């Protein structure tokens, strides 16, 4: 049972990270206002939300299974307060920080109609901090964190996220960028 | 009873989700912003929504990334 929890804790962490990478990519696409080939804009937004919720579910399983596991022995404090854990406290603490940021982003997203666009947007920016922190946590804390295949996965993920960010800040990011620039000239 | 979809253009960023969901009610201008196809008294930011489109309108309100849309029950309900 313990072995199973430990293995599941590790696998669910990796799945969660991959899903969050997808969430960021689809989120950037949604922000551009562009459809994805034949997928309309509202579906892109729904896909962004659904991958994010799935990633969060795996993150909860990741943390939950390692709380139950007698080897990792995460306790409630470790889940909320970073850098106090006994094993690699710094790297585990990064995971705690990422987890707290995810909670903030998810809660404000689900309540966005009540809290309004400003708060929603401000908190949503945390994602750009959360993702690299989560990646660093995976590399520094994960049992497979420095194995070759994981580093390849991490490098590939980082490359696509950086690519998406470069596109995000480029002049032609918005679907209507050309028209809008034209209007100002 | 007909509902009214109100577009708050100060919030809207022309991302075009609503024009996809309500293609028969909304046009999209060159900058991406939605406009009522049929203006009510020259007002193109309040759109009459018949029951057939009510669900799509609700989805648009829910999904609008800028929370720029709202639905109200009667046409005269806005901006008195
Ligand atoms: S979905 Fe919202 S932001 Fe996008 S065009 Fe419609 S009102 Fe504007």
Automatic annotation (TrEMBL), chain A:
The keyword Transmembrane applies. Coiled coil: none annotated. It is a multi-pass membrane protein. It is found in: Membrane. GO terms for cellular component: membrane. Its main location: membrane. The chain crosses the membrane at residues 6-30, 51-70, 90-111, 123-143, 149-170. Residues 13-134 form the Ferric oxidoreductase domain. Keywords: Membrane, Transmembrane, Transmembrane helix. This is Ferric reductase-like transmembrane domain-containing protein. The lineage of its organism: Bacteria, Bacillati, Actinomycetota, Actinomycetes, Micrococcales.
From TrEMBL, chain B:
Gene3D superfamilies: 3.30.70.20. It holds the Pfam family Fer4_15. This is Ferredoxin. It comes from Arthrobacter terrae.
